[in-house]
Design goal:
This protein is an alpha+beta fold. It contains 21 helices and ten strands.
Length: 458
């Protein structure tokens, strides 16, 4: 076996460096060793691959390189034992397939106006001329979209209960009280509701009770006109031809919930940052959106080319997945000219691929035009991952991102409150703005305050 070069420092020190500044660590490794390098974790080689050729081999060689669910076991407390991340083979393929209809194609079209309306609802509650934090505000929007599109809920007691519970649960899951025990399983001690891990389990139990009650109600009173994800799953059949159990349905939701709220909110927040830091981009976006008239159809908004380019560039710089899920070498194989032995772990580095200066000249610069000038392959631009573990909610996430951004900039005048460049900060698997992105709502009338926003963000 011959391995790519890499640092010789102890793995505990490298883990500390990565934990302190993940993106900075990846940049430093790439500058020193190139776009494929090795880090030893005790006796196990970890290969980081950050180029399109390596990505293609990683995603297409499914015989010698396996996307094993066992490698994601530490996420079990978050995603459940039957979550997609932990399943393999037929069970994984079949249950992933079950999620495709309600998250893709014609199904998501019915969510369009709902997304615009929910965005407008949250934004309209912000006070004029007072600073607000954009990232938590976007989390409010994406959480309400989740309740509507995933669970088909928009009002009522159970809606209010789930909204409050998911807000508390997902915020607590991003705290050190949960993230540290996830990395050190011996700390996962349930000492009752008032203990850190016990409280986490208590919140999940509350979620289960609400979800199972909703499932029970719908099984007794089915509604064929419902378009939400839960309604689709309740009457879906698993790989053995039987109706899905409550537990099987439940375990398909956690990864969708965290991605649906935090990853989507991160992407929209960064879009607001770039659009208002570079006013010429905002002006061009407004011209494109306004060309559709006063009440544009959401699908027409979704198909706008410059809006698409802006959203792609946002996702290029800080993709929703910085790293792919790990793969393991099952039998002797070759990757990028290196001969790899069984047991080697391979991790695709989406962030480094997106920072490749040969693919994306001046990669640190926000340049949406690059996506109008060139069509990138799925191995060059892959913000939602690739292969068998690609995010199943990709289509809905892009739909939501475009409609929310278009609704906000066409209805509201915002301004950044600082001229300092915004930095990313790790929060779980996502990298939202470190400051939570403080902004100012200037006006709800775009024509009245355009000059203020332009002059205040140069």
């Amino acid at each position: 076996m011959n391995l790519p070069p890499g640092p010789k420092l102890p793995d505990w020190l490298l883990k500390m460096q990565f934990a302190a500044d993940p993106l900075g660590f990846l940049d430093k490794m790439s500058q020193r060793y190139g776009d494929i390098f090795t880090i030893m974790s005790e006796s196990t080689p970890l290969l980081f691959v950050g180029n399109p050729q390596g990505m293609k081999q990683l995603f297409t060689n499914t015989t010698e390189i396996i996307a094993s669910g066992e490698l994601n076991q530490e996420a079990a407390p978050l995603v459940g034992k039957n979550g997609l991340l932990l399943l393999d083979g037929l069970r994984h393929r079949y249950r992933r397939k079950l999620l495709m209809p309600p998250l893709h194609g014609n199904k998501i079209r019915v969510y369009g106006q709902q997304i615009c309306d929910l965005t407008e609802k949250v934004m309209s509650q912000l006070p004029i001329n007072k600073p607000f934090l954009a990232y938590p505000t976007m989390q409010k929007i994406t959480l309400q979209i989740i309740l509507n599109t995933f669970f088909g809920l928009s009002e009522g007691e159970r809606y209010e209960q789930l909204k409050q519970l998911l807000f508390t649960l997902m915020n607590y899951a991003r705290s050190p009280f949960v993230e540290i025990p996830l990395s050190f399983p011996f700390l996962q001690q349930n000492l009752g509701r008032w203990s850190p891990w016990g409280y986490f389990l208590y919140l999940w139990q509350q979620f289960d009770q609400l979800l199972y009650a909703e499932i029970s109600d719908r099984r007794q009173q089915p509604n064929s006109s419902s378009d939400d994800v839960l309604s689709e799953l309740i009457f879906a059949r698993n790989e053995t031809g039987e109706l899905m159990t409550n537990e099987e349905i439940r375990d398909l939701f956690p990864s969708l919930l965290f991605g649906g709220r935090d990853a989507s909110a991160t992407a929209i927040a960064w879009a607001l940052y770039w659009v208002h830091r570079l006013p010429v981009i905002r002006e061009q976006l407004l011209r494109e959106i306004n060309s559709l008239g006063d009440s544009p159809d959401p699908m027409n908004i979704f198909q706008l080319p410059y809006l698409t380019a802006v959203c792609n560039e946002v996702l290029r710089i800080y993709p929703t997945q910085v790293l792919t899920f790990p793969r393991i070498v099952e039998s002797q194989t070759e990757l990028m000219g290196y001969n790899l032995s069984p047991g080697t772990i391979i991790i695709g580095c989406i962030y480094l691929t997106h920072q490749n200066a040969d693919l994306y000249p001046q990669p640190k610069e926000f340049q949406p035009e690059r996506f109008l000038e060139k069509q990138y392959s799925p191995y060059e631009f892959l913000p939602f991952g690739g292969g068998a573990r690609r995010c199943p909610g990709e289509a809905l996430a892009l739909f939501e991102m475009k409609l929310a951004l278009a609704t906000i900039i066409s209805h509201y005048q915002l301004a950044l409150t600082s001229t300092q460049p915004e930095k990313p900060h790790q929060q779980g698997a996502n990298y939202p703005p470190a400051s939570n992105l403080k902004m100012l709502l200037v006006s709800g009338n775009s024509s009245n305050s355009r000059q203020f926003v332009t002059s205040s963000t140069k």
